[in-house]
Design a protein that fits this description.
Blueprint (H helix, E strand, L loop, with lengths): L5 H11 L3 H4 L9 H9 L8 E6 L4 H14 L4 E4 L11 E3 L2 E2 L2 H18 L3 H15 L4 E5 L16 E4 L7 H4 L3 H8 L9 E3 L4 H14 L3 E3 L10 H4 L10 H17 L6 H9 L1 H5 L6 E5 L2 E4 L5 H12 L6 E5 L7 H7 L5 E4 L10 H10 L3 E4 L3 H11 L5 E5 L2 H7 L2
Parallel strand pairs: 1-5, 1-6, 2-5, 6-7, 7-8, 10-14, 11-12, 11-14, 12-13
Antiparallel strand pairs: 2-3, 3-4, 9-10
Helix pairs in contact: 1-5, 3-6, 4-11, 4-12, 8-9
């Protein structure tokens, strides 16, 4: 077989196999059979390192990054698997903050390409296999593994972790996970493993009994992070500097604290200094981007990857607490979202710049504009994120605020 270079390998990965991030529903596999076959082929690397498994509708990426940074500061060799990436495919797989080398990606595909064509794994399944293989090869002490979609049938769910985490439940990916919060919670509760402690980030009264019953069935201790009374649970109380600016990060910090609390009980003597340094250095240590991120200070330009009802609600709340003269919103969304609820959350007193990220799933900006107008939102349609952002910058005064969001992919194209 002709050797592929990194660019050709990446092209094969992206184009040969279905990938949820680009094409949506047809990439979703409602079974773990492929993942099991893939990991058997690789010699089950997922059993060679300790892990923390993080699911939830919002915040799972931030929690995973914070935990990785803290455990790295504690002196552990730490793996981090997250998705999707913003700029570089290799962002998904890191060890002590360093992205997987290009040569490792190329060597992995070269070694297993023929077998993959027999198994026919999805892009996501193959990427999970690559991550687990890399973590084993690097002999990581512990890995933070973020669930891609749902929980029960997610490729990452072949792990038996030290701790299972479910940050919160909101409406997202209903075509796969169900139309009610209970159905979505039931899918995410599928990561609960026998005897493995489970942490729920936010208590939602209508879902509490469901999680308690699932944990009891599995014989798993359950802890609700927002009910955990620990000294220094908020960064104000403990003098911690949290560089992630979004106010919603307080909830994620609380969930992170609860995981550290359990890890200490499991014999990890994590010092307060490691916790403080880990949180303070989370951007430096892990490369996390796109969370209420400052793009420019004049005019103030911010972006956030929030893309569902609960996430957008948090963003709008924070916009309301940020001073500005006029608000400009560069906004794009994917075409498989129920966008009516999201559009009605957005502020009417703003100028909108509707756009489409350069992916097949992006919603046509003219259709987005049409639906937005029905929700009382006014603006123009642009053929690209870059054109929309340029128009917003031209129109904005130094006292105005530009916000970029609606989709991870829109934010990715706005990042420098």
């Amino acid at each position: 077989m002709q050797k592929m270079n990194y660019r050709e390998t990446l092209s094969w990965l992206f184009n040969q196999l279905p990938m949820y991030q680009r094409i949506g529903a047809s990439a979703y596999k409602a079974t773990l059979d492929n993942t099991v076959a893939l990991c058997n082929l690789l010699g089950n690397p997922q059993n060679q390192f300790d892990s923390i498994h993080v699911a939830g509708t919002n915040g799972k990426g931030s929690v995973s990054h914070m935990l990785a940074s803290i455990l790295q500061e504690h002196g552990l060799k730490t793996g981090l698997y997250t998705s999707p990436h913003l700029k570089d495919f290799r962002e998904r797989i890191r060890v002590n903050g360093l992205m997987i080398p290009k040569r490792k990606v190329t060597a992995f595909i070269r070694k297993y390409k023929d077998a993959f064509e027999q198994i026919q794994p999805s892009f996501f399944e193959m990427t999970v296999g690559l991550a687990f293989d890399h973590f084993r090869e690097e002999e990581v002490d512990i890995a933070m593994v973020e669930v891609g979609l749902g929980g029960r049938l997610d490729s990452t769910n072949i792990l038996t972790p030290l701790v299972s985490v479910i940050t919160n439940i909101s409406f997202d990916h209903m075509q796969f996970l169900g139309e009610t919060l209970e159905k979505i919670a039931n899918e995410k509760a599928g990561i609960i493993k026998p005897g493995v402690p489970v942490i729920i980030g936010e208590t939602q009264p209508e879902l509490e009994s469901l999680f308690r019953e699932r944990a009891e069935m599995a014989g798993s201790p359950i802890l609700f992070a927002d009910r955990l009374n620990l000294k220094g649970t908020s960064h104000e109380a403990s003098g911690i500097r949290l560089p992630l600016l979004g106010r919603y990060q307080q909830k994620n910090l609380q969930t992170t604290w609860a995981v550290i609390h359990i890890l200490k009980q499991l014999g990890y003597p994590i010092s307060n200094e490691a916790i403080q340094q880990g949180v303070a250095n989370v951007i430096i240590n892990t490369g996390i981007q796109g969370r209420w991120q400052l793009l420019s200070s004049s005019p103030l330009t911010l972006c956030d990857v929030a893309h569902n009802e609960a996430g957008i609600r948090e963003v709008v709340m924070q916009l309301g607490q940020t001073p500005y003269q006029h608000l400009h919103i560069v906004f794009g969304i994917v075409n498989d979202k129920e966008i009516g609820h999201i559009l009605h959350l957005l502020p009417e007193k703003a100028t909108f710049y509707f756009c489409k990220a350069d992916i097949p799933r992006g919603l046509d900006p003219n259709e987005l504009k049409r639906q937005a107008e029905q929700a009382g939102l006014n603006g123009k349609a642009y053929t690209s994120v870059r054109k929309a952002l340029t128009a917003a910058r031209k129109a904005a005064t130094p006292e105005d605020l530009i916000f970029v969001g609606g989709s991870t992919f829109v934010v990715a194209e706005a990042l420098p």
